[in-house]
Amino acid sequence: MNMKSQSSVKTSPGGPSDVEAIICPAQPDPAFLSNLHGDGFASAYEQHWNEKAMAEMLAMTGVFVHQFSAGFIMTQISLETAEILTFTVLPSQRGKGYGAVLLKTAMQHAFNKGATRILLEVAPDRKAALGLYRRAGFERTGVRKNYYAGPEGKRDAFLMETGLGTELNFR
Fold first, then answer.
1. What is the pLDDT of residues 109-166, one digit of tens each?
2. How far apart are CA 102 and CA 73, in angstroms?
3. Can you give the pTM of this predicted structure?
4. How many structural domains compose the chain?
5. Which helix (H) or strand (E) holds 9?
6. Residue 165 CB: number of other CB atoms within 10 A?
7. How far apart are CA 24 and CA 9, in angstroms?
């Protein structure tokens, strides 16, 4: 897919074409993002980032947020590498293509800032997220043992990566 503003990402009715513009605010609101994060990561083993933790993440060098009212993606760009720090869409809005649009937007932004690759960690049981990442060209590169901690114990994370270039590989 050409890295232009057009999107050939598949969406369903009520999906991204109906959403307000995805924005990259200069000063994202930590409280807003913390609330979205908590609603998006409500499982027993994932602890959401509170407002203080979100503010600390936002204060780091090279961190960018792309958001709309029902989701956001936070990336950090350092030289040629971008990393997805966190990414969520409200459960009630999943399956409509919002995640694909957010991911594509963040990948294009990272490419425009000079990144040549993008990395992430994802829980192995996040089937929809894994599918989205694979459609975007991500490949599994390893496992981070006991990465996620929560009341039900620790869980591993898959490490995934894809290159960035003039084309996005959404399939």
1. 999 999 999 999 999 989 999 999 999 999 999 999 999 877 778 889 999 999 998 7
2. 6
3. 0.83
4. 1
5. none
6. 12
7. 20
Instruction: Using alpha carbons, select from 26, 170, 15, 33 the residue that is nearest to residue 105.
Output: 170
Q: At what angle do helices 98-112 and 127-135 cross, to 10 degrees?
A: 50
In a domain, 7, yes or no: no
Cα-based distances in Å from 46 to 29, 41, 55, 86, 149:
22, 6, 19, 12, 7
Which residues fall within 8 angstroms of residue 119, CB to CB, at 6 or more apart?
81, 82, 83, 84, 159, 160, 161
CATH number at residue 46: 3.40.630.30
Q: What is the amino acid identity at position 14?
A: G
Residue located via tokens 């350092």: 78
